[in-house]
Specification:
Shape: globular
CATH topology of the largest domain: Rossmann fold
Number of helices: 8
CATH class of the largest domain: Alpha Beta
Strand order of the largest sheet: 2-1-3-5-6-4
Number of strands: 12
Structural class: alpha/beta
Strand content: 15-25%
Largest sheet: 6 strands, mixed
Order of helices and strands: EHEHEEHEEHEHEHEEEEHH
Number of domains: 2
Amino acid sequence: MKFAVIGNPIEKSLSPKLHKILYKELEILDCSYEKIQIENKKLNHFFKNEFNYLDGINITIPFKDEVLKFLDSIDSEAKILGNVNCISKQNDMLYGFNTDKYGFDMLLKKNNILIKDKECIIIGAGSSAKTIIKCLIDHGAGKIIIKNRSIENATKLQIFADNLGFKNTELFSSDIQDCNVAINTTPIGMYVDDKHNFFDIPVKKDACLIDLIYTSKDTLFLKNFSNHFQKINGLDMFIFQALKSIEIWKETNYNLDSQIESVKKQLEIIKC
């Protein structure tokens, strides 16, 4: 079976290496995985031609919303979120899923992060932010604050939460009090270590700080805070969203509990 991740840019994606590691750890012998960069306005060409030799794909920035129009069916969770990061092809039919939410749910579980009744700040307002805000609502967040450069997009995310029945959201301002949990959903710092004050946010002394970026233990966002905070990058989410994709494609459930540390160590070696 042949799989791939598509996006733009895609050259620094670790997805092929992660999948190779997972196939080895889970003793999956019949799968391969590659990365494919799709140029702007070439997505239609990809689905009409290049997808023919693939059994499924993962989708990353900036195509998680745009691929919806090519699908024959969308999973109920992905339909709520309005974006997919996983497509399975069965009998020439394309089925869309969102495995990022499962990945973030597992990140919270593996790191013993409790969200219930907590005040949370989300940085960003794109597809990933929608996924995270749905997770926070499902886990019983008390309040959600949205910080984004585009007020228009932040307002759209606020309306999304409101449509889910969650009424306690607000846009970031200088009056915001210290929060319990802060989550960066933007790609800022993934490729360029630029300096800016966009990550300056008020947090409590026992706050948990999460960056969805997985390419570094100490991301640009996490560097803004001292080490006495609980600081977590997106590696757990990255691994478990990939595992869920494999389960969808193979129609099989896998248990990674005994191998998770081995997978992380192998990825750390690759990143170094």
